[in-house]
Design brief:
With 467 residues, this protein is of the alpha+beta class. It has 17 helices and 16 strands. The longest helix is centred in the N-terminal third of the chain and has 19 residues. The radius of gyration is 30 Å and the shape is elongated. It binds one RNA strand of 74 nucleotides through helix 5, strand 6, strand 10, strand 11 and helix 13.
Amino acid sequence: MPKAKKIVDKEKNVSKKVVKKIKIEKQKDEPLVLQNLRGMKDVLPQDQAYWEQARRVAERLARDYGFSRIDVPLLEFSNLFTRNIGGGTDIVEKEMYSFVTRGGDKVSLRPEMTAGICRSFIQHGMHTLSRPVKLFSIGPVYRYDRPQEGRYREHYQANFDAFGEDDPILDAQMIQMAHRLTHCLGLKSIQIQVNSIGCGVCKKDYNNLLVSYLESKKTKLCQDCKRRLEINPLRVLDCKEDKCSQVAATAPQAVDHLCEDCRVHFKTLLEYLDELDLPYTINPRLVRGLDYYTKTVFEIWSGSEEGKKYSLGGGGRYDKLVKIMGGEDTPAIGFAVGLERVIAEMKRVQAKSYKPMKPRVFLAQLGGLAKKKSLRLFSELEKNGILTAESFGRGSLKSQLKIANRLGVELTLILGQKETLDGTVIIKNMTTGVQETVSMEKLVDIIKKKLKTDNVIVYHNHEESLI
RNA sequence: GUGGCUAUAGUUUAGUGGUAAAACUCGGGUUUGUGGUACCUGCGUCGAGAGUUCGAUUCUCUCUAGCCACCCCA
């Protein structure tokens, strides 16, 4: 096949592909870099207990609050995000992982979950389901951001969305659930920040009001804020510069400029929250980064006293999003929590994590014949619910006992040449060192009895409580 | 995306312009069928690349990554 000719023939269409191909070829020659990509992190075995805990709690709460699990692709058409999250936001402007597929589709790794879930909601006609439609998902999202602790390019979110109900009681329940989540994970000093940024109408009105106010005080603002004024005036209220916060202090607040409907909605929400005894504070400056939010917005902070406030998760209403995307007019509210951040917090406060089961029995084998037999015996024990450790690859009994000791098992079974021929097994008590020989048939029963009389835990208990 | 600090075995840390140390961990062993000790032994292209130099892990530059602040957000 004359490659050169092919390229000439399709010159314009193919040139991009050729470039791509060359890049891939080039990469092949580069040395293998044994390092994860920037902002990507391995979840190592020693951390899995925390992850397990976080996932379990999220999944259980989702179930208890009536959410059904949904999983949507990591990859969607780029404009699903650019159109709905908001063109002016950082997420869309510079933090998306976007590329063109071989088929020419412009696609992006999801920078958040809600857009994909809304797409799925509309696509599958879920508005016909009994309302509210509550959906729960957990998985990675991607943002091409500069990494820092608690900020990764790939991070996991547990995401809750409820469609088709605009009653603020749902907002309250969502916030309650968010609080329960942190509580169940053993996190202390949690703060809930709530605010209302108004509906499509009053949100815009307020924005204009704020801009004209800030314009009038422009000279008193810091450099950054002058820039913010153009892009996202609400952010000025957040500035830490003294002179800016002075200006912000007297600035008009969104809460005071809500339309009647939004005002009542927010007031009712607060009444519900009072009823729930949640540690919430109204934060008139709370703004969220995505354009689609309306009315209620909230964040969960881990408030380390006067120290840094750290956002673990956040959410809010997006009553117009489904309609904007082309679905039935459906009010909705969502909440997402960042698992890495929650886990970092669990570690910080030394919350107890789920402890995986440890084997209490070790199986040691000696000699070729015994080695063969041991494989079957291991399976036999497993079928009977006896979690057994082994080190089949090791030869000497000495090294196997060393491992058994390190694992802290209570019993070690020794299967050697002699025992294999006799159809017996030696059971060694690792604390006392006493050992006895028992027949293969009775082995399982004897082990069960021994583990039980040595009191403690019922093994293979999959129903361990979460809290 | 902007600025600052950092980078030595799996981990935590020494150290030097001239063949790299310790502790812990891990693997193997101390006469071949018995474990927490002790002893012996193995494991590093000193983050990557280039430059200065007779010679660089050490000095310079670039890159990469991590952390911190900003920004933003989960």
